[in-house]
Every structure is written in C-alpha cells, then in structure tokens.
Amino acid sequence: FSAAIVITEQPVSVSVPVGYSLALRCRAEACTSLQYQWFCQHQSVCCQIPGATEQDLLITAQQTQLYTCRVNDIYKNAVFSNWVKVEVHQCVGRGLLPQLWRGEPVIILNPTEQKVEVGKPLQLQCAAMGVPAPSFQWYRNGNVLEHQKKKKLWINHAKVSDSGTYLCCASNSHGEHWTNAVDILVGEQSQPISGLLQFCCLVFLLATDKIALLVGNNHYQHHPNLMAPVTDVFELSLLLKQLEFQVVSLLD
C-alpha cells in the first residue's frame, strides 16, 4: 500500500528575455521519500534533462520550451506536474527590464493603429514579459472584451461597430501594465473618385470657361477596381450640362 503523491507547488510559466536566469519550482508531499526528474519539450520532442533531479530547475533562457517535473516515490508511483512554458524573447535584451525587476509585466510590443474594411479580419497584437507569464485582457472604448484574453485580438469579420479605441492590460501576481491605446476605424473601402468628383465640381463651378473634361478610370495598376466610375462620369456630365458646360467624357 502507498499513499498518493500530492504536488503542493506547481511550476509556473514565464516570459523572459534571452539570457535571463530563473528557477522553475516543484514541491510534492507523500508518506515516503520522493525523487524529482525534470523534462523539457521543444518542437514536439520531449526529453529528460540530464542531472535535473532537484526540486528547483535552474535555467538560463535560450529558447522557448515546455517543462514538466516527474515525482516518484519508493514504490515506483509517479505523478507529473503541469506543463509550463518558458517563453524566450530572442530580440529583447535584458537592458529593457527595470533595474530591480520583480517579474511585473513589461510591455515589449504595442498594437498599431489600423483602418479595416467592413467584413475583413481585424487583428491586433501585443506582447509582454513577466514572471509569472502575464495574462491578457483587451478593452474597446474602456469596456472589457470578454472573449479577447490572448496576446492577439482577432475578429474574423470586422463591423463598423468594431471601430473604437483599443488597448490591452497585461497582468500577473506582481502587478499590471497597459499597452498604448490605438484607434481602429472600420468602414467601407474608400473610393478616391468620389473625392475627385467633389473637387472637380468645385473647380468647374468657379471656372470662367464652360468646357469640362471628365475622365472615368476603372482599371488601376495598384488599386482595386472602383465601384461605378461610368455612372459617376454620367451623373457629373448631366450636372455640368445643366450649368451650360460643354462636356467631353472619357472612360479608361
């Protein structure tokens, strides 16, 4: 007969810069003596860490990996701790951290301002370091977005109502830190010809000569085809003729 092995302290995930030194901790209790063995997993390959038989696993972070600890008793019973992630930011130096860093969240990537067409995907991204690894919560116009709790905010089909000011809070047991606030505009695809037509109307109304040249182009090399350039030219042509212009209309 053997009593159950109970893990009383699980290791925790962390998010740190490359070269950062830390310790993963695992504690367990049983009625017999216990042995510890740490394992790591990188790119789906899991292996035992040679010599890692202490309750604490000392690591100098070099690459993002997963870790777990196996605890054995003298009866060959075994339990595993939770898998935890050591996320390593290769492009971030330790100099970015506060001098007396206790593990509180540090923002290393802020979201960026965007203009998104209706129906297209909206993606915002942030990143933060922390020990333990921070959790994330996105906000729009100061309101919590209940289902947006990851580093990446993803909306498959953006709506006009998704427009607003977005920011994200990264938090852990040591505190919280907020990203910059960014404005997101969701609307219909802009049509450059509309603004051009308004400008042309103003110029022609102020012109002394009564000759108007209208060009409607629907084929652009670096822009999607416009919605209705032929209709725009036709309607503007009628307007100008009512104002006694001689109108020359060209298409494409």
UniProtKB/TrEMBL annotation:
The keyword Aminoacyl-tRNA synthetase does not apply. Gene3D superfamilies: 3.40.50.1460, Immunoglobulins (2.60.40.10). It comes from the Eukaryota. It holds the Pfam family Ig_3. Residues 208-252 form the Caspase family p20 domain. Coiled coil: none annotated. Keywords: Disulfide bond, Immunoglobulin domain. One of its GO terms (biological process) is proteolysis. InterPro entries: Caspase-like_dom_sf (IPR029030), Caspase-related_regulators (IPR052039), Ig-like_dom (IPR007110), Ig-like_dom_sf (IPR036179), Ig-like_fold (IPR013783), Ig_sub (IPR003599), Ig_sub2 (IPR003598), Pept_C14_caspase (IPR011600). GO terms for molecular function: cysteine-type endopeptidase activity. Residues 3-81, 105-173 form the Ig-like domain. This is MALT1 protein.
